[in-house]
């Protein structure tokens, strides 16, 4: 796990279109952002141990831990650059166990991202990433292994509560971003 190489499976023209979509809407989803090889390598990361820290208040209840795998942080940084962003702070691993919900805050001047890590996640297990638009209408996605969700911090997502029927915790990378241009 020393070198993650090029972890993104998204062609440059699709990244350019995603950058334009983000500029127009403040939110974009890129299924298949992580290559299958990268996802398999990332699957080898120990998510059960480490310095997990719980965040709980009226707006969220989740666990996070720093990403200590330097090669992975470097690979994520390289993969996000074509979208016009670089990390504003080191990314973290985010975990939602049964009954947990929400996402970390990001300063209003930043953007943020989630990269889903669970394969075969079902909608009825919760952990959906929802955005509330005009007129209170919520739209979003269920976790999908390797999918990137990029969003404007002024429009943070709602991550719905994970059900007790989920066979494992919901896992994702989370990071704050700043524009590179």
**Poorly predicted spans:** none
Task: Please give the radius of gyration in angstroms.
Answer: 15 Å
Structure class = alpha+beta
Q: State the CATH class.
A: Mainly Beta
Tally of discrete structural domains: 1
The biggest beta sheet reads: 8 strands, antiparallel
Annotated CATH architecture: Sandwich
Quantity of strands, as a count: 11
Kindly estimate the percentage of residues that lie in beta strands according to DSSP.
25-35%
Tally of helical segments:
3
If you consult CATH, what is the topology? Jelly Rolls
CATH superfamily: q2cbj1_9rhob like domain
**Quaternary structure classification:** single chain
Helical residues, percent: 10-25%
SSE order: HEHEEHEEEEEEEE
Alpha carbon gap, first and last residue:
31 Å
* Morphology call: globular
Q: How does this structure look, described?
A:
- There is one protein chain.
- 18% of the residues lie in helices and 29% in strands.
- It is an alpha+beta fold.
- The chain has a single domain, classed as q2cbj1_9rhob like domain (Jelly Rolls, Sandwich), CATH 2.60.120.
In short:
By secondary structure, the protein is of the alpha+beta class.
Spell out the key features of this protein.
181 residues, alpha+beta, Jelly Rolls
What does the secondary structure layout of this molecule look like, with pairings?
Layout: H1 12-25, E1 27-30, H2 36-42, E2 53-56, E3 61-66, H3 70-80, E4 85-87, E5 92-96, E6 111-116, E7 129-132, E8 138-141, E9 148-152, E10 158-159, E11 170-179
Antiparallel strand pairs: 1-9, 2-3, 3-5, 4-11, 5-11, 6-9, 6-11, 7-8, 7-10
């Amino acid at each position: 796990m020393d070198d993650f190489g090029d972890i993104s499976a998204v062609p440059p023209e699709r990244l350019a279109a995603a950058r334009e979509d983000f500029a127009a809407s403040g939110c974009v989803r890129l299924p298949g952002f992580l290559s299958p090889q990268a996802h398999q390598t990332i699957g080898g990361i120990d998510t059960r141990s480490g310095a997990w820290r719980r965040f709980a208040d009226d707006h969220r209840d989740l666990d996070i831990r720093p990403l200590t795998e330097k090669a992975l942080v470097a690979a994520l940084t390289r993969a996000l650059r074509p979208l016009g962003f670089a990390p504003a702070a080191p990314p973290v691993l985010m975990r939602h166990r049964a009954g947990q919900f929400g996402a970390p805050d990001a300063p209003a001047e930043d953007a943020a991202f989630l990269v889903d890590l669970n394969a075969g996640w079902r909608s009825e297990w919760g952990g959906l990433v929802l955005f509330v638009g005009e007129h209170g209408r919520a739209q979003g996605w269920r976790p999908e292994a390797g999918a990137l969700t990029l969003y404007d911090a002024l429009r943070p997502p709602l991550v719905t509560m994970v059900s007790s029927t989920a066979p494992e915790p919901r896992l994702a990378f989370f990071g704050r971003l700043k524009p590179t241009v």
